[in-house]
Amino acid sequence: MTRSPQDSGLTGRCCLCSRSRILQSTMTPTDDSNTFDTVTCSGLAVSHSPDLDGGGPRTWPHFIQTVRRHVGEQVNHAFEWCAGPGYIGFALLGAGLCNKLTLADINPVAVAACRRTIEQNGLADRVTVYLSNNLADIPDSERWDLVIGDPPHFREALPRHIERGFELRSVDPDWSIHREFFRTLTPHLNPGARVLISESRVAGNYDDLFTHMMTEAGLELVEPIWELPEMRRYCLLGKWGG
Question: What pLDDT was estimated at residue 74?
Answer without folding.
Answer: 92
